[in-house]
Amino acid sequence: MNSTLSLKERKATFAELKAEYLFIAIPFLLLISIKIYISTWQEIITSPDWSLASCLIFGQITSKVSKAVACSNTKTSEHFFGWYTAKRFLLVVISIAAYFG
């Protein structure tokens, strides 16, 4: 894989990274601002909504990694990718259990 990217490719990569960070940050900022507006600041920490948020983020990460592996030209070990996917799935299940339990 070529390690030097053109200026256009670097800008596109940076724009995609910024979009990913915003996609993750905006729900958290909304959650925090709504909790501050509706209730006390202590409920920000004790809210079960964090479990749902982490479940969504784990799902997004798994989707992005799967997409990146499928698009890459490098040889990827199926065993390590399967192990990574299994760990992510387990964390999503734990997050859902914490949210509903």
From TrEMBL:
Residues crossing the lipid bilayer are: 21-38, 81-100
Keywords recorded for this protein, A-Z: Membrane, Transmembrane, Transmembrane helix
Note the superkingdom of the native organism.
Answer: Bacteria
User: Could you tell me what this protein is called?
Assistant: Uncharacterized protein
